Structure formats: C-alpha cells, structure tokens
Amino acid sequence: MKNLELRSLVRQSLKHIKNIEYTVFAGDHLCLVRNRSQSNDYEVLIYDVNNPDTNNVFEISEIYDVFQCEHLPFHGLVWIGTKNEFILIDPVNRTVRRINQYTLSEDREIVVDLNNLENARWDPTGNFIIVTRIDGTISVFVVDFVDATLEELETSNIHDAVFKTEQLNWGSAERQFRSQNEQSIIKTFKDEVSVMEEKAITNISWRQNGENVVVNYNNEGKRKLKVYDEAWKLIYESEDIPGLQSVTAWKASSVVFAGVVHTSKRTQIIIFEKNCEIKNRYDLERKVPVHQLKWNDSGDILAVYQKNSVEEFSNIDLYVFKNSTMYLKQRLLYKNDNPLIDFEFLKSDHHLYEIRTITETEAITYSYKFTYNYSVIYGEQPHALCVVIQGPLALITRCTNGMRPPPEYDLLINMQNPINFVIFHPEKPLVALVDCLNVLSIYNIAEADVTKIRSIDLGKESPFLLPLKYHHFLWASNTKINYLEEPITPGCVEIVGLSMEESEFQLVKISTIDKSVNYMGLIKNSTNTIQQIGNEIFQITETNIPEILFSLPSVPINVKSILTDGQIYVFSLMSNASFYIDQVEVLNDIMSFIVYDNYLFLTTLKGSLMGIRLNKQSLTELSDKNLNNVYLRQIEQGSHLICGIPSTPYIVSQMPRGNVELYSCRLIVVDTLDALLEKNKWAEALEFVRSTRLNMNTLVDLNFTRFMNNIEMFINAAKVPDTLSDFLIELQDGNVFNTIYTNCVNKKEEIPRKVEFICDVMMNYMEQVNYIYYVNTIITACFVKNGSTCCKDALFYIQTLLKEVEKEPKLMNEAERAYKIALTFRSATEMYKAALLTYDLNLILFIAMNSGVEPSEFVPFIRELESVDMKQRCFKIHDFLKQHNEALKYLIEYGTDEEVFNYIKQHELFEQAQWHIKTNTKLHSDIMWAVARNLSNQNRFEEAAVYFNRIGACDEALEEYIKALCWQEAISVMKKLEKTDQEISENLYRLVDGLKNTNRIKEAAKIYDKYLHDYESGIMLCIEQKIFDYGIKLATKYNRHDIYETDITVAVLDYCTQLHEKFTSMLEDFIIKKGRLTIIREEKRNQHSKDFQMASEVPEDLQDQVSLAASSTIASLKSSSSRKTSRSRRKQERKKHSTREGGVFEDIALMEALYNLTYEAFQWGPKVQELCIIVMKLQHIELLPQNVTQMYCSLLKLQKTMESSFQEIWPPILCNITVEPNDVVVFENISQLDVKYRTPPNNTNVKWELKSFSALNNLQNNVT
Fold it and tell me: What is the pTM of this model?
C-alpha cells in the first residue's frame, strides 16, 4: 500500500553537451563519453560535479569503438571498454592507462592482443571482468591494476550447449509444468512479430553477490539467455522467447532477473527465475522500446527507460512489486529538446532511494521514500482512506469498511496519465492528483461514485518540461494548495499558492527558497506549516516567513507535528531508527510512527507497538525517557503503521509480507470507555465493553466512587439480567489497571473487599426492585462473593421462591432455572449437602429431584427424616454428612449416656465431647479419663496430668507430671497425697535423672539442694557438666570454700586447658581448609585460561563440530541425570558435603566446613568470658595461670584469623547476578551450595573480650 514520495530534488548545471553515449558517476566526478562524429571516434570528458566549470574539464581523445564504461569504486577508477583495448582512468589524479594485451593462465609467457571485443562487464567486486567477442567467444579475465595487465582465467563459446536431463512421459516441453494461461500466452506470442533492435549486442548482467551472471545474446536472429555460476560454468539456458530484447538486469542478490519482450502488439517486463524459466509477465503501458532496465541496490525499485524516434519525449518509469503485481509509482518525462542521456541509482539506505539523471544541461538527483498516502477525517461522518498509485489509476480503500489490500479497492480514479502525487484535503473528503504532465485534478470521494470537480494544467504557461517541476504539494487551507516550482535554470525554488475560489484557479507566488526542501506539512490542530530543509526544522506562519525552530543531528526521514496544550511538538524519525521529540532523542529502534487523534503510536524493530497520549505531561515524561506510562503491546515484527480509523480503537498496519491488518489499541479503548462513563452513558458503555472484549472490571476500576454512585443506572442500563450476571462472574478483587491493563492509565487505587461490597449493594437494590426478575443474578452474586455461606445464601433465595410457588405455580420454572444457575458454580453434591443443613424437607426434595439423582437413593432417607422429630432429624442429617461433632450435640439432648458414650467412642470424639457434656456427671468423668489416657499415649504428659488432676485421679496425675519432668507440680501433688519420705525421695531421684538426661542441670542441682538436702551432689553435678557459675553459688551459699578452691578451681583450669587445645586444633583445621579452597579456585582459573586459549586456536571450520560435540555431551549428561535412582541422588548429595581431595564438589564442601568452624568459634566467646571472670575472682589479674591466658589468646587469635579471611572465602561476587567469565568458572558449583553457606555466619559480632585481659602485654604479643 506504499507509494513513492519525493523527498528532495537537487539540480546541478552542466556544460551544454551533445552526442553523449555513455556516462559514469565516479564519486564527485562525472565521466562523459562523447561521439565526436558519426564515425566511431570518441572522446572522454571528466567534470568535477561540485565545480562544473568548462575550464576544469579533463579531456581524453584517441578513443575508438567504445561499447561500455563503468565505475570501479573499490579501485577509484573509471573503466572504458573499446573494441581493441581497455582504458583505466583515475579521475582524481587525472591519469590514463591502456591495456591492449593479455596472458594465458596456463602459459603466462604467451601474450595475446585484445581484439574484436563486443561487450564486457565487471563483477560486483571489481576483480574480474567477463568479455564477449563478436565471434561468440566468452572469456573471464583477472586484472592487475598495479601493473595494468590482464590474465585470462576461463574461455568458452556462447553457443556451447548446456547439459539437459531427459523428460520421461511428463508431456511435451511446451506444456510441462505450465498453466493453461501460460500455454495460451506462449501460443499467442508465436503468432506475433518480434520487433528487432537496432543495436543487438550481447548484454551481460551480474548478480549483486557475484554468484551468477546472465548473458543475453543473439542466436541466429533470436535472443537467448544463458546463466553461469561463480566458477564461470554454464548451468542454465533459456528456450526461444519470441520478442526477447537485449536489455537484462539482475535483481540485486535475489534469484530472479528482469528482461524485456517487445512484439508488434505488446511490450512486457519479464521476470525470469535463475534457471531462465519465466516467473511473471507484466504489460507496460507504453508500447515503445525499452532501452534500459536498472534495479536499485536493494531490489525494491525497477527503473524502466523507454524512448523511440517518433515521440517528442522519453520516460523513466519506477515500478515496485508486491503480491505478484507490478505497480507503476512514478513517471519522469524528458523532452527531446533537453533529452535524457543516462541515469543511475545511487547507494542508499533502507529508507531513502536516490536516482540521478543526466540531461544535456544538468544533473538531477531525485530522492524518494516509501510512504502511505492516507486521509483521516473526524466529525459526523468520520472516514479513513488510503490511496495506492498504479500508473494512471488511484486505488482507494475505505479502511472503515475493512481492509482491501491492492490490487483490490473500494473506489477507483482513472486519469489519462500516470499519477505522481496524491494530496488529501485536511478536513473534507477531497483528493488532488497530479500526473506526470503536471495536470492537477481534484475529486470528491465522499460517495460511492467519484466525482471530478476541476483540474488545471500547472505547466500550461511554462513550456519547459522538467520532470517533477512542481512538487511537495500541500493542502494548506480549505481552499488553497501550496507547492514548490522549479525555475528554468537551477536556483531558488518558488513557493506557489493555488487558490480555488468558486470555479477558477488563481496562482500566487508566496516566497522563494534557496535550498532543497525535504518536507512540508500542516501542524495538527493549527493552521501553521512545518517545513524541513535538510536537518533544520522551520515553522511558517500566516506571514509566510520561515522561523527556524531547531536543528537535528542528521536529516530525518519522517516528520510530523502537533499543537497541544498551547505548545508545538515536532516528532522526527531518523534513518538510524532514532526517534526525536523536537531536538531531544527519546527512543531507539523505532521503525515507524503516526499521529492519530490525540495519540502518538510507534512500532519498534523488535515488534512492539507503543502508544502515548499527546499531552504535555506524557510528552514531558517521554522526553525524560520515562517509559513507565507508555502503552505497549506485541505485534508482528516488521510492521509499518499506516493510519488510525476514526471513532474506533483500530490502527491500520502493513505486514512485511504486504498484507494489511488492524490492531486494537487498549489505550484508545480505555479512554473511549472513560469518556462514555463520564457522560453517564452506561448502556453504551456496556455495549462498548462487550464489543471490544474489554474486561468488565474496567467499568468499576476506572473510578470506583463513580460506579458506586451510579450503580442503579448501571443495573437499569442492562437490557437483560444475564448481562449483569456476566459482569458479576468477571468481577475480581484488585484493580485490572494494575494487572491486566498496565500502562493504559496511571496506577489506580486498590479497593479492599471490592467484590463483596459491590455484590451486597447490587443484591440489595435488585431485591427491592424486582426480586423474581433478578433472582438468577442475585444467586450469581451469592457465589461470586465466594464466602463460606454462599451455598446457604443461594438456597435461601431458592427456598423463598419455592414458598411463592404455592401461590403461583408458574414460578416453579423460575426456581428450576435458578437452581441450574447455582449448579454452574457448585456441584449437585455440594448443593444437596447444603440443602440438608437447612432441615427443610421440601427444599431437600426439590434439590434432590433437580440434581439428577435416582429417587431410590434419596426418597428412603427423606421418608426416614419425616418420621422423626426435629432433634433426631438434625442428628441423622449431620451423621449422614459425617459431621459427627455437630451430630453429637443433638444426640446428647435426647440420647442415653450409653448411646452418647458409644457414639463418642466410635468416632473418637473425646476431646470435643468434654465441652458438650455436663460436668460433675459420671459420663463427663468417663470422657475426661478417656481424654487423659489418649493424651498420655500421645506423649502429651503434662496435658494428661491436668485432666487426671481435674477428675481427682492424683496418683495418675503424679505419674504424668514425673514423665513430663514438671517437678514443681509433681512435688505439689506428692504433698497433697501425703507420700512417705522414701516415696518422695524415689520420685525426686527419678526427676533428677530425667532432668540430667535433658541437660536441665541447674534444675537437677536445685532438687539436690532444696528437696534431697544433698548440696554436695549438686555441686559435683555442676562441676561435671561445666556449669561452674551455679556450682560456685551453692558452694558460697554453704561456705564451702574448700570445694570452691579445690574441686571447682581445678575443674575450671583443666577445662581452660582443654579449650586451649580445642581452639588451637580448630585454627590448624581452618588454615588447612582455607588453603585448600584457595588452591582449588586458582586451579580452576588456570584451567579456564588454558581451555580458552586452546579454543581460540581451533580452526573455524572445526569450531561448529566442537560445539556440536559439547552440546551432545551435555545433552547425554542431562538425559542420564534424569534416569538417576534415589540411591544415586543420595550419593550425589553426600558428595556435596564431602571434603575428600579431588572431589567434584570439594570447593563448596570446604566452604560449608569453614562456615561451621567459624560459627562454632564465635559461639565460644561468652563461655570463655565466663571462665576468665571466675578465675579473676580467685586470683589477681597479673597472677593468672598460663592455661587461662592461653585459652583466651587462642580463641582471640582464632576469631581474628577467621575475620581476616572472610573476603577471601566469601567474596562479595557470590551475591552478584553478573560476574566475569573467569569467576563463573571458579564458582560454577555455587548453585549447589545452600544459600546459608554463601555468606559468613551472622554471630561474628558477639562482644566478649575483656579489657583487663587485652591490656596485658603478654596477651597482646600472644595474639599477634
């Protein structure tokens, strides 16, 4: 759907020259080959394009029989081929070298003269040249540009036959693999007369990548094609093609090339496959000879140059191909009084296409880009139109009626000549078309039949015919079209205004511009104009005086502007995919953008659609590169935006394949819905949400307060209750604009218990208005609330409806439908159980009958319920539902003690039953006894003792307290039972043994002291278990200084010695493990460097094989790991904790071991502090025993050594996400290590050091 739009037109004057046959552009130099007479005597003129002074022309004479010339950009030379020699010209240094001999590759001593050359072409690299001779010989030469010598590599004859396969019973060659239409065309062509060319020489065309070359030659009066591969081996040849001409052009690097067929009845462009088979045929509008075919370097545009001696002008037609159709997009006409000499495509990027033409007076460079010609009009009759140019036809598609990709259309305009420009009216359904003869016609396209309003020949008063003399058309106002007019000679361009007053046109010259204009366009929401000249952006106001706004770093390829919030914003897209707002670069990787309504939409190279509201806040955030509020969705990669369809949320986009698709934009949808709700158009809003498939929560979440204030209008806006049910089903807690539709609006407030609140309000209103009409919606609301009583609530409304059935039997159908609604949320089983709990037999029977259950399954049970009173009925229902605790409540009210106890025992309800049975009864005591025994069997001894104590079973309570080691309670119970001293002593010793086994040493020592009156045993127990502080307390209490100074002191000093040895051993172990860990990490680093060096030395052709082998190995390991047994997994897990030297996971096992050592070392601090204080109480600080100071220093040294190693063992890199490649290899096993062991222990900050100890010099020295 794209057309070619003229971006700029640049003219350069040349010396008035005639008889030019060949032209070559070599950078800033123009090489012209002129025939000085009617004979074959030529001269070469080289111009400096930037300084086309006649005195600065470099002339070369004595050149004869020229047949071709080319520019060799890789060597900076111009090559001219003649019949007997090659001429190499350096246009910069103005030197000339001639080559007229060559050597043979098999014998370089043999020198042969160049002669009888017919044509030649250089390969795309400029290293080889293929030459044809008059006798049919075809040769390939390599050129030494330093010595100016030729060496022949290959030679053959153009008439050599290609090897063909034999056809086996698949029909004749004329019919094989050909459609009926193709067969008919071939038969028709055989009856037509071929038009013979005046100069029918051999033509050569290279494929852009140099893999193939096609040769078009004369074979006994008929032309044929032959294709050679990169080794100059003949691989394909064509059949006889009637009317085939010598013009041939390969399409860039593709597998097709173009040729021409010219007969007495038609002129066609033929697209050939690489195998010389015809792929497509396209008829040309003008039935005149084609002199040149040229593709641009990307193969997007085919230029066709036609002329004959009869007509007064020649033409260059620019074609594009899409969906097997050839579209004529531009026609450049040249009069014979200033004829076209030559043309060429210039190197260009993927956005701009430049073609340079040479006439006798000037060089003209046309710069094009592909664009969409569309019109978007808002208002009462909004529409979106898109025009595709096809020669004299304008194919118009109404996007509002659905997309019709070309060559289909909704409206058709047929002009007499090919169209070059399309201009839409900014506010009305009018379009102006300008053809190649500069005739401007205006059409009304509002109706199904297109109406021509008027036309004007812009060049009627100016006979000079320059292609695209009038360009950059802009419908500047309601009745005025502005455009640029080129002068006769290159100079200042005039801006002309074409006013349309009633039935007449008036031309008014507005101003002049001395530079080439790239773009002119209206500022959206303004009457001013934006003008782009190079990289400068201007604003033109009503005074017609350009005012420069800013300059950009480079020339943009697309510019749009808008006036919003009183400020003008200019959007620019660069060829490097950078996007600018004014002169600030805000985005990269942008493929296309449009300004639609009050939105800016962009597509990215990665396949994303971005949308921004056009207001000051959004554009300021975007200028600050804040993308938090930018709408984003994924689309097909390579999509180009065309336009938006007014009054809809749809964006029209063209895919890379050429098909056109519509994208729905949630950003527009949400804004449209918000506008409807703000106007309280709830019925339209509901229909809009349904048609756009928008989540119905948006009705609430856009503005919760607005919805709740208008909930009655919302309910009444629903045409049927089912719409409200759909709304309730879709309702969810949370805000959808913070989850589903993020970036459509700013973050919205979360409303707690939103669903429950809305359901309650709607249910209350619907009950008051018409309970029966809305009953299905009310039941839906019960389940949407999703509370624990939803089934009960829904059954309440059905129960109420059943009561109304007694008055009006017709309501039974409504009750059945209401129950079916309930079944969509809960199963029939759940509903039947909930109905049973209502104890309403009529409701139970209704639910059972409508649940699809066999009557034999529920009728006997319901009859049984009818036969008993309410208490028994409740018991049977709860027992049936296996709600035994609830059933017990009703059984207690009417059953005997024996029945109750048996039921409790059967269902093990002892713990629950204790709260329902009256106290001080035998049944209660039996239950409590059973509960206590059950607790004791579960080793819950203290609880069991409490229960035994409550029912007066003190002996059993004492036994349970002793088992629970609750010694205070046990002593209390023994006093209550008046136990003998021996019994008390035995029980106390049992308690002491239990406390010792559970490491409750202080409590055991307290029993020895207070109740067994054996404090010495208590002291000895404390000494034995290293609880020195409590042992000292007991010794002090009884003034046993002898025990304090002998037993306790000796035990403390011995313990200090043990700890000193322990800490010393831990330090040695720590140093060994840390050293081993350092060695392992260093070995891994060295091995990685070695592997990397070996990998870099692997030849390139083996790298893929190595990579494949590695991948295969990894795949096999993964496969085998998935088959591991549990035993293997346990073995693998043990390896992670094994510090065996050489193990796979030795490094992480060492880290775990070092963590445990460090944690233990820092746990000993408070204990060592306690021991030191004890010794200090016995002796003066300066007379401390050596084993105490050694213990203190060894722990201090151990901890300081560990602290200094933390960075080495646990480097901060272990917490980083991205690490260097070497570090990745070193810590490759870290993922297998528990997170706990990846950082140092968290107990290293415990303060335990004693200042009095640290002040001693000997301690400081020991620590150091």
Answer: 0.69
